[in-house]
Design goal:
- The chain is mainly alpha-helical.
- Helix content is 73%, strand content 1%.
């Protein structure tokens, strides 16, 4: 998969080398082509960063105004970015694109035979066996083994005629690749300790070694310069010092990383890094100049529009105040579609509520319910504290309680539970006590009614007993007359009959119990 990704870069490198005949120039032109391709993306990132930098004073004001309230500050900053049309993350996204290209180029430079020339691994094996047979020390393992294809391609260039004869038909797709550029071998790695074992008497030896040694430092210097120019043209929008500290750290670490990369990789990567930094500085300078002019024009237009809008609002305000003072104001019917729809919806709801109210009034009228200013169930400002179907005389008038309960429920349907015209002066405990007291009074009334009923039953029973006694006396008198007894004897017999009647009743009750 990685070989497929690197193919476009390999084709471009081969095409540039075939048309220039110089490996170093091909690397520089490759860097130029990459910068030209990325210019539209970098332009977008540059413009976004410049827009963000122009918001620094406004952001500082927001930070001062909302100090200590990070949530409010973030919301206000997002609102500011939205109003100004700025995406603070867009400047960072496009700046990451060069890194995959750098990795792909490294793969092409490190493996020129298989990745750049698209030759098979058999060609690598054939060349390795041939030169090892000639006495060259080649290793496919370790640090030097990572660049064995560069060594083989360099040796193949030096002995090109010889290998074309000795290995005829076995070097398919192999190119005569010359790594020399300005007297330097770009396939070699710079050595930081070259001065310890260099022949200083021979300029053809120490001068190329010194040139390779200087490549990492030139690359680091240009990388630092590019970052300085970018930070000067794009001042940070963070006034808390954190972004400035981060930028300072990057300005120190990135050049050091550039030095390390150029020392552990072939010199061709250092040349690419240098060329890319130079082209980046030129691109940044040109884009800054172009976008500064564009943003100045856009800011002037935006400021003019804002001023015109503020003037128009002020004019309308003064005109409205004048008309209001003269009593000539009128409702503006030229409302938006959204407002008209909201007004129509409110009117429909009001008509529906009025229809429902009229229907409830008609039902109350049919049932003979009259509107009461204050329902019997109201306690304080709670209209239905005793219940929406509450009927005060439900115990005293049980015959009409059901109908009255239904009428009370219908009357309270849809009505507000709180009476806004009455202040809440009755605590909840007092309301509860009143409800309990009322329940006790109702219970006492029910008990009194029960006692009255029992008393009435007792009186009726006494009257019935007296009537029975009178009947018995009359019967005895009649019997005495028939038997010719004296009145005194009849009276004694009546008393004996009356005394015997309770005993007979008790005997009858005992018999009933036994049964």
């Amino acid at each position: 998969m990685w070989a497929t990704i690197t193919k476009p870069f390999a084709w471009l490198m081969v095409w540039l080398y075939e048309h220039t005949g110089n490996y170093g120039i091909a690397v520089i032109l490759f860097a130029l082509a990459v910068n030209l391709i990325l210019t539209p993306f970098m332009a977008k990132s540059k413009k976004s960063m410049m827009r963000s930098s122009r918001l620094a004073p406004k952001i500082a004001e927001l930070q001062r105004r909302h100090e200590g309230n990070q949530q409010k500050l973030n919301a206000e900053m997002q609102k500011l970015y939205r109003e100004e049309g700025v995406n603070p993350m867009s400047g960072c996204l496009w700046s990451l694109i060069p890194f995959p290209i750098l990795i792909a180029l490294y793969s092409v430079i490190r493996q020129p035979i298989t990745r750049m020339m698209f030759a098979s691994s058999d060609v690598v094996t054939t060349l390795q066996e041939y030169f090892m047979g000639k006495g060259f020390e080649l290793s496919a393992t370790g640090r030097s083994g990572a660049y064995i294809e560069i060594q083989l391609a360099d040796l193949a260039h030096q002995y090109w005629s010889e290998i074309q004869t000795a290995l005829a038909g076995k070097l398919d797709r192999l190119l005569d690749l010359d790594f020399s550029f300005l007297g330097l071998n770009l396939g070699e790695q710079p050595r930081w300790n070259f001065f310890m074992d260099t022949n200083w008497s021979d300029a053809s030896v120490w001068l190329p070694a010194l040139g390779l040694f200087l490549i990492p430092f030139i690359s680091a210097l240009l990388s630092w310069a590019a970052m300085q120019i970018s930070s000067k043209t794009n001042p940070t929008t963070d006034t808390t010092g954190q972004a400035a500290s981060t930028m300072k750290t990057m300005n120190f670490m990135m050049p050091l990383m550039s030095i390390w990369i150029c020392f552990v990789m072939p010199a061709a990567m250092g040349i690419y890094w240098i060329a890319n930094s130079v082209f980046g500085i030129i691109r940044d300078f040109v884009l800054t100049k172009v976008f500064k002019r564009q943003l100045d024009i856009e800011d002037a237009e935006r400021q003019a529009q804002r001023s015109a809008r503020e003037k128009e609002l002020e004019r309308k305000r003064l005109e409205t105040e004048l008309l209001r003072a003269q009593g000539k104001t009128e409702v503006n019917t030229n409302t938006s579609k959204k407002k008209r729809q909201a007004g129509e919806k409110q009117e429909r709801e009001e008509r529906r509520a009025a229809a429902e109210k009229a229907e409830r009034a008609a039902r109350r009228e049919r049932l003979g319910i009259k509107e009461a200013e204050k329902p019997a169930s109201q306690v304080g400002n709670r209209r239905y504290a005793r219940g929406r179907a509450y009927v005060p005389d439900r115990f005293s008038n049980p015959e009409t309680a059901a109908e009255a309960t239904e009428a009370a429920a219908l009357e309270s349907e849809g009505a507000a539970a709180i009476d806004e015209t009455v202040e809440e002066t009755v605590p909840a405990v007092v309301s509860a006590a009143e409800t309990v007291a009322e329940a006790v009074e109702e219970t006492a009334a029910a008990a009194e009614e029960a006692v009255e009923e029992l008393a009435e039953d007792a009186v009726q029973t006494a009257e019935e007993t007296a009537a029975a006694v009178e009947d018995a006396v009359e019967e005895l008198n009649a019997a005495a007359e028939d038997a010719s007894i004296s009145p005194a004897q009849a009276a004694k017999a009546a008393e004996a009959a009356i005394a015997a009647e309770p005993a007979d009743a008790a005997s009858a009750d005992d018999n009933d119990t036994g049964e």
